[in-house]
User: Which sequence fits this backbone?
């Protein structure tokens, strides 16, 4: 909620800058996401600037914004590489933006995300203690399903079911975590659901249609009802042999407003270029007059940040 | 005869949408992740609403507010929206899956309102995994062939069913089954930033016709027909009939002339045993031994040793 009391949804604005940026919104060589209020800019701006005699490039991408954007689904996808760095950055971004975050962490432990988060300037422990972060640790909670009795269905109750297709308890957990509460709690900004990752649910026996239905209900509740955002990671096997995963990936792609796809280089491993990122904007209900909705960048992951550059423009090869 | 380019484009724009809506039946809009088809679906809905037709929308994939974005209030007032987005499986209500999309489809089939009607299904890709395939096909057939005969009249209502389908989500079986139901099939694609619609029309007792239109959809969901890129860069080959004869411009000969065919027929294959060949083998004549083998041994070939010396025979 902004100062006027109206709901302002935070649509992620990708600010990708190379070394030497002086923007107060980002640290050096980092992916940063601005939380500036939505001021109604309706077209994309891609501005390139040359800073003095340096070869550095900055590219600022402004997705279309309006005062009351109803909430977006951002799909993170990786193929032949690890796209989890985007999960860490979205998590740190939304926590710094003072959003209420529900994080379904099915892949790694809490300490793993906390250690990486500290490198990016956020403390998950502090966020959880003050109620900003609702963290479902899948690895730990899965043990509770089997060895502890629960009066109410556990979010991961599907692990005990023969037909592992009912994700309704997991959805109820998300809805309960992000529903607006009374004014006694701090006024967080828009709620955000972050999932790492949905492909793991397929490995745990849940069908692709059940996962799509789960995401559908999350969209209806988090995006439309609560005016928040959903960010989810899905892996792309790329070989076309995993039909269920392909159905999940394509189904989510059709539901998404923004698709960030990380790919390994087709030529193999490179020390200075770790992969490339494809950005595709989609508005399922809005026409796009021009088809310049996709961009491709290459990137290198460093210790505390990620540097992006145009294809073939890695500092190592220039 | 049109005199200027603007009139021609206006005519083409109107023609494209009219051709999709005129015949009725099931119009299948096939799109992909890269080339979404919901914009074209909304353009067709707008066209129907402007023609004062009844428009029913079964919304499963996007919210009602998101679907109404871009339409004026006049258009929105003409739309009857059946919202299945918020709780399609009735989970929030705690009831088992009884109504939902099947109930909504069945209710549409039983409608008795007079006048032409357009029914938009957004989307068939959502309905297919949640309904039995045969049930969905039966409902689609019933929807697109609704008859209204009040008072015993034999008039047939003009019903147009627009079905949006995301083709990557389905195998060739369901795609083929839906294609067989559709009277018109539109494949949304494009190249070099320009969207295209490959339109395949099937009419009873007529040959299927196809055409490709290059278009863009404006923010108010009006259609703008473009000239499009050259023919060579059209992305969609005809999935049902051949556009180019593959027999032309070959580097080898697939056809025989009369003389060549006679020579081929009279040719005796080397392993074909005939009575003439049998006689030739049994009674070799003077002319049979016409081949000779000339051998000039090399110097080292004159080996006096018997290679069979080591055999204890």
Assistant:
């Amino acid at each position: 909620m902004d100062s006027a009391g109206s709901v302002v949804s935070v649509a992620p604005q990708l600010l990708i800058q190379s070394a030497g940026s002086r923007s107060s919104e980002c640290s050096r060589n980092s992916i940063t996401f601005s939380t500036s209020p939505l001021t109604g800019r309706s077209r994309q701006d891609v501005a390139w600037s040359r800073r003095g005699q340096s070869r550095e490039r900055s590219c600022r991408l402004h997705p279309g914004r309006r005062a009351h954007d109803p909430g977006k689904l951002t799909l993170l996808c990786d193929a032949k590489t690890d796209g989890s760095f985007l999960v860490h950055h979205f998590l740190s971004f939304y926590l710094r933006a003072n959003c209420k975050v529900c994080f379904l962490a099915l892949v790694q432990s809490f300490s793993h995300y906390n250690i990486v988060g500290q490198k990016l300037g956020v403390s998950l422990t502090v966020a959880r203690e003050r109620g900003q972060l609702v963290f479902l640790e899948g690895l730990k909670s899965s043990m509770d399903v089997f060895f502890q009795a629960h009066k109410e269905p556990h979010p991961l109750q599907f692990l005990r079911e023969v037909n592992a297709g009912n994700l309704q308890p997991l959805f109820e957990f998300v809805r309960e975590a992000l529903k607006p509460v009374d004014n006694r709690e701090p006024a967080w900004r828009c709620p955000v659901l972050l999932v790492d990752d949905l492909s793991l649910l397929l490995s745990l026996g849940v069908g692709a249609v059940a996962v799509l239905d789960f995401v559908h209900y999350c969209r209806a509740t988090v995006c439309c009802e609560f005016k928040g955002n959903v960010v989810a990671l899905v892996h792309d096997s790329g070989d076309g042999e995993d039909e269920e995963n392909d159905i999940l990936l394509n189904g989510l792609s059709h539901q998404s407003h923004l698709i960030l796809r990380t790919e390994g280089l087709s030529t193999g491993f490179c020390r200075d270029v770790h992969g490339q990122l494809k950005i595709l904007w989609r508005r399922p209900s809005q026409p796009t007059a021009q088809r310049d909705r996709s961009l491709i960048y290459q990137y290198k992951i460093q210790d505390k940040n990620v540097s992006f550059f145009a294809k073939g423009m890695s500092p190592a090869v220039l | 005869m049109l005199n200027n380019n603007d009139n021609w484009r206006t005519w083409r724009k109107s023609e494209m949408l009219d051709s999709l809506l005129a015949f009725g039946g099931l119009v299948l809009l096939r799109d992909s992740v890269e080339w979404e088809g919901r914009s074209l679906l909304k353009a067709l809905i707008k066209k129907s609403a402007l023609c004062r037709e009844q428009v029913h929308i079964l919304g499963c994939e996007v919210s009602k507010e998101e679907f109404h974005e871009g339409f004026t209030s006049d258009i929105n007032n003409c739309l009857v929206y059946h919202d299945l987005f918020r709780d399609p499986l009735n989970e929030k209500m705690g009831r088992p899956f009884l109504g939902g999309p099947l109930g909504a489809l069945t209710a549409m089939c039983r409608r008795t309102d007079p006048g032409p009607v357009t029914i938009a299904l957004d989307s068939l890709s959502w309905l297919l995994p949640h309904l039995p395939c045969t049930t969905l096909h039966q409902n689609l057939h019933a929807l697109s062939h609704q008859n209204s005969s009040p008072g015993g009249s034999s008039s047939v209502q003009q019903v147009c069913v627009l079905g949006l389908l995301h083709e990557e989500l389905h195998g060739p079986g369901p795609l083929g089954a839906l294609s067989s139901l559709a009277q018109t099939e539109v494949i949304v694609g494009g190249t070099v930033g320009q969207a295209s619609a490959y339109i395949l029309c099937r009419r009873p007792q007529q040959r299927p016709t196809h055409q490709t239109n290059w278009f863009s959809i404006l923010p108010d969901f009006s259609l703008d027909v473009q000239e499009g890129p050259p023919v060579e860069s059209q992305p969609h080959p005809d999935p049902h009939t051949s556009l180019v004869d593959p027999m032309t411009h070959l580097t080898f000969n697939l056809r025989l002339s009369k003389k060549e065919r006679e020579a081929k027929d009279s040719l005796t294959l080397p392993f074909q045993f005939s009575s003439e060949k049998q006689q030739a083998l049994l009674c070799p004549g003077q002319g049979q031994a016409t081949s000779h083998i000339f051998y000039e041994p090399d110097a080292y070939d004159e080996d006096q040793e018997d290679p069979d010396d080591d055999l204890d025979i």
In short: Strands of chain B lie at 25-31, 54-59, 79-83, 117-122, 159-166, 184-191, 194-201, 209-217, 223-226.
